[in-house]
Amino acid sequence: MKRIRKIVALALATVMMMAMSITAFAAENNTTTLTINNFPTVANGYTVNAYQIASVDENNQIQVVDWAKDAYKAVPTDDDTTPIEMTAADAKALAAAFKADTTVDASATITNGVATFSGLKAGAYFFKVANFDGDLEFNAMVAVTVVKDANGNYVAKSTESLSAKSEPKKVKKTEDDKYASTVNEKEITYTVETTIPYVKSNEIVTKKFALVDHITGGAYSVNADGKLDITVAYGDVSETKSVDVVDNGFELDLNYLVEDNAHANEVITFTYKAIALDVKIYNDAYTITPSHQPGDDFDTTRVYSYTGKLVVEKLDDEENPLEGAEFVILKKVGEDKYEYAVLDSNNKLTGWTDDETKATPIVTAKDANGKATASAFGFDVADEVNGQLVMNTYFFKETKAPETWTINPQIKEAAFNGTVSLDQASADEEFVGEAQFIDSKLVQLPFTGGMGTTIFTVLGVAIMAIAAALFFATKRKASK
User: Fold this and answer.
1) Which domains occur in the chain, in start order?
2) Smallest Cα–Cα separation from 212: which of 290, 289, 303?
3) Which positions carry the signal peptide feature in this UniProt record (predicted)?
4) Residue 427 DSSP one-character state
5) Cα dihedral angle (112, 115, 118, 121), rounded to 10 degrees?
């Protein structure tokens, strides 16, 4: 009997211990561990904040916090067995309703592209990357951490996961030649970098991902078919896509990259070429994403390249403008050795020659300011020498003076204004090299022909005739 009592007591103790353990385990496990995956590398080290927007009260009811009530209304009734879900529309509405001073309920640091939250209570949460200053825009992230158990009570899910969803808000863009030239259609290479967006599987917009660019002051270097070849690189992939150029711009369709989100948040680069046609060359690049559709205001990225402009001014010796003078442009290629600029009909530089007779002259004429000037453009402003930018120098030489004026024999330097830097990118920047020539009148020599000569001749003959007559008259008189 004693043995039976001991067995019963032991069994009761075991049951009590198990019951207590179950209660403890239930209490301990009634929270959610949530992971947010797929953050891009640039997000590592940033903090993700969690804001609880719904919780379960003591009466097993879902309660939504005040700031989210107008945005999130998907609270089931007591007899509703439909799982609580969070739609994309809910997420957008919550993002719009969110206030910066909202209390943070939990935080996690992004490490190797993952943010992990432990101990989240049953309910629903809104997540936001704090103080992110990169060129990405993270979509609203929301998660439900509550389910109904077999007894109809709300309990926390044991685990939940999300994928970070981001879209590029501004692309990065660089060029390989800020100081370009129009000689031989020298090419400028542009590189654009952005991030492949995460696109929801049920996204209804037609244009989900595309690169758009528009060039001013230049033209894209197209292939034999008139299309622009663009090198597209992401992950281990490098491929060439050809696109039509329309009105100095293009739109490259990239929908194929976001069909299954296999490359979401990966860095992608685009490389393509253009040529300079003016003194300032720039283009505006941006991406189309589900959140940024055609017709929206885009935060574009613009980079500049420049060609130099050379201007010569002609004056007379009283500093009045003098039209009709002709000049050629030179560059030094050795000791006392020059090459001469060859220009097109618009005075754009197309090449150089060592034969001065083949150089293209520019002719002075009055400009809008009343000055007699001539100009040409397309000159290389600076070159990199031993890792340093060195500004180039060009010269003017007068080859023909206006009628009644002398040629100024000097060869004058036209130094560019401003300073050169690989970092500058200003809409107001322009590089102009100027020179000024002053001519003098031709020396007026005495007139040696015409009526003056005739008078002197007649007078001389008359004097000689008179002298001869006097001579013969005197001789005749003496002989008598």
Assistant:
1) 31-164 (2.60.40), 168-306 (2.60.40.740), 308-438 (2.60.40.10)
2) 289
3) 1-26
4) T
5) -170
List, in order, residues 6 or more apart from 343 with CB less than 8 Å away: 349, 350, 360, 362, 376
Residues 6+ apart with CB under 8 A from 5: none
Three-class SS state of 367: coil
* Number of H-type helices and E-type strands within the chain: 3, 34
Dist. CA 39–CA 41, nearest whole Å? 7
Q: Please report which confidence band the pLDDT of residue 247 belongs to, taking 50, 70 and 90 as the band edges.
A: very high
| pLDDT mean across residues, the chain | 84
Q: What share of the chain is helix, strand, coil (3-state, %, to 5)?
A: 15, 45, 40
The pTM assigned to this predicted structure is 0.70
> Longest Cα pair distance anywhere in the chain, in angstroms?
208
* Total number of residues shown for the chain: 480
3-state secondary structure of 368: coil
In angstroms, how far is the first alpha carbon of the chain from the final one? 208
Is the alpha carbon torsion for 22, 25, 28, 31 positive or negative? negative
